Amino acid sequence: MNKPQLAHASFAIYQDAEPPEFWTKYFGVSPSCAGVKGQKRITPSGRISSFPWRQGIWSITSKDAVTSDELTPHLRYLVNLLELPRPDLRELIERMNGQMRFFCYWENGSGDRIPDVPEDIGTMMEGLGGTVEVDEYR
Fold first, then answer.
1. What per-residue confidence (pLDDT) applies to 96?
2. Quick check: 1 pLDDT over 80?
3. Distances in Å between the alpha carbon of 129 and those of 43, 50, 88, 126?
4. Tens digit of pLDDT for each residue in 51-95?
5. Arithmetic mean of pLDDT, 110-128
6. Which member of 25, 46, 100, 110 has the greatest number of CB atoms within 10 A?
7. Per-residue pLDDT, 50
8. CA angle 11-14-18, nearest 5°?
């Protein structure tokens, strides 16, 4: 049985101007999760949720592609896969009144692990108008 990873990351764009297929074509990558505002969501168990998407989302995760308990390999994987930074991405997001972020899962049951978000990735996301968020679990 595989030991659960203590870290993984996702990149997400939230906006309602374009369908998820726009971002799939833009990045040339199929999303891990996508939805359109108002459409019913499919839960991880495969059931249809009675709660629709509150906003459009296009997201991709490193969870199944990278094996590491540190964030750096997960974030670098996503940056390379999505070919970030892209010169027109900030303008696209702003024009669509959207948001983008890296969302990092960080398991810290021991209480002594410090998230390793590389400074260059934080700076890049800031320059693109996005954020890097770490959700720590104890």
1. 96
2. no
3. 30, 33, 12, 5
4. 888 899 999 999 999 999 999 999 999 999 999 999 999 999 999
5. 96
6. 100
7. 83
8. 115
In whole angstroms, give the CA distance from residue 58 to residue 36: 9
Place of tokens 């968020």: 133
Name the band, by pLDDT with cuts 50, 70 and 90, for residue 42. Answer: confident
Long-range contacts (CB closer than 8 Å, 24 or more residues apart) made by 31-39: 31/58, 31/59, 31/60, 32/59, 32/60, 32/61, 32/63, 33/57, 33/58, 33/59, 33/60, 33/61, 34/58, 34/59
Q: How many whole angstroms separate alpha carbon 120 and alpha carbon 80?
A: 13
Spell out the long-range contacts of 135-138 with Cβ–Cβ below 8 A and sequence spacing 24 or more. 135/103, 135/104, 135/105, 135/106, 136/106, 136/107, 136/108, 137/105, 137/106, 137/107, 137/108, 137/109, 138/108, 138/109, 138/111
Helix (H, G, I), strand (E, B) or coil at 38: coil
The first and second tokens of residue 97, run together, are 């009144």
Please give the structure tokens belonging to residue 56: 């459009």
Q: Which DSSP category does 62 fall into? A: S
